[in-house]
Automatic annotation (TrEMBL):
Organismal lineage: Bacteria, Pseudomonadati, Balneolota, Balneolia, Balneolales
Annotated organism of origin: Fodinibius salsisoli
UniProt-listed PROSITE patterns: MULTICOPPER_OXIDASE1, MULTICOPPER_OXIDASE2, PROKAR_LIPOPROTEIN
Name of this chain's protein: Multicopper oxidase domain-containing protein
CDD domains tied to this protein: CuRO_3_CueO_FtsP
Listed Gene3D superfamilies: Cupredoxins - blue copper proteins
Domain Plastocyanin-like residue range list: 64-175, 234-296, 389-501
Amino acid sequence: MKRKDFLRLASIGTGIATLSPSLLACRSDGNTDLVLPDNAFSRPLAFPEKIRATDFELAAETARRKLAGDAASDVYTLNGSLPSPTIRVKRGESLAIDYQNRIDQESIIHWHGLIVPPDMDGHPKDAVQPSQTYNYRFDIDQRAGTYWYHPHPDKLTGPQVYRGLGGLFIIEDEEEQALNLPSGDYELPLIVQEKRFSDSGEMTYSLNRMARMMGFFGNTLLVNGMQAPYHEVSNRFYRLRLLNGSNARILDFSFSDNSSFYVIGSDGGLHDRPCEISSITLTPGERADLLVDFSSYSVGQEIRMTAEARNGMGGMMDGMMVGGGMMNDENNNEEGMMGDGMGSRNSGGAFLEFRVTNEEQDPFRLPQALTELSFPNEADTDRTRRIDLTMEMMQGPAINGKFFEMLRTDQKVQQGALEIWEFNNGTMMPHPMHLHATQFKMLDRSGGPLAPHERGWKDTVRIDSGETVRVLTKFDAEKGLYVFHCHNLEHEDNGMMANFEIV
């Protein structure tokens, strides 16, 4: 073993060594099938409420809802909706949104992927207390695409997203509408999230030391807040707007018969052309715009959409993180690797069934070109900025060896500067890094070629263990303080976040 690999292993091992000897019982298979309920694929898929206004309120409230099994769970809703409403706006519109915090914690909303002024971005310093309201006023001036919004208070992002706050934010423009992509009933917003449920069906969230270090991992996949629903389709093209809204789980999406589909967009909107693929890996916070062609199926056929765990750690940590295990023991006692009941067998598998129920003539034809991508020229770069992702003994992952402080400026960037940010992952786990206030172009990753969905505009990027990834971005947002962070939400809450100031 090389010295640097030994040191990285030791940094993880020091934290693990303080835990139960039952660690030795861990298994390395993190890709076992979902344990499906007896009524799997018996309920129709539901979709979040829609908001098409430019002046509206978002009221966060506590509630009790049945999500899996017979037990009700403590959740947070927005305007009574779980998942949160899908907001649809047009480029050029001006928004007035009043966020009313009626939950029992401070909170603030971040518009993930949107480029807005610093006081509109949801910086943790702007969090409002219970019973207070934050007024958002900003213009929509960016490409059509599938964005999203979610809470962003310091040390509380993980539990608030986990309990239900967060929804899709869809921007439309004339260029995209001219493509006549599948819309209406043929456009499906899908928010996939991993949750942990007890045997009675109650959703739980409880952190021990290892969950703070590695992330909170569940034992069940929900789509639009539902466990194993079905959706009826015609044998034609459908557009899927897919978000991995999990706290920590990286998911590889595909179909049960290994059929191919087309990726047409990613975090920051459409790509230049469709690309045919058979699977797509998304970290927490990443989105993908997909076209699925059901025309080769006959009425009566069924196909399931699947998701497999891809958190890595050389197999060791997938075994530790699978299901409810030691990392996420709901009693917080750090005993036993595999946890209880269904938790040990539920890290991946089918989560949504499509049923072909109707023959239909499809007017849509797959275009050869979608849009023109105008990326900045790497040769015009003003500077390269190195960002080290580190593991601090007994404390967890950090950025450049530091943990978040609310008003400390970690990086200063000139407004209008074109920079390469070089992320170097010196830890033994992957990190989805998210930059506020900008969209970027991925240049390369040392661990291999870019995936098809990584070739468009991005705001969140996976950095694998031991890997270096370079991204190119221009900082055109208004001057002020913004953050960048790991979108493993337990990492973020534990301090894997830093401020950058545009000056």
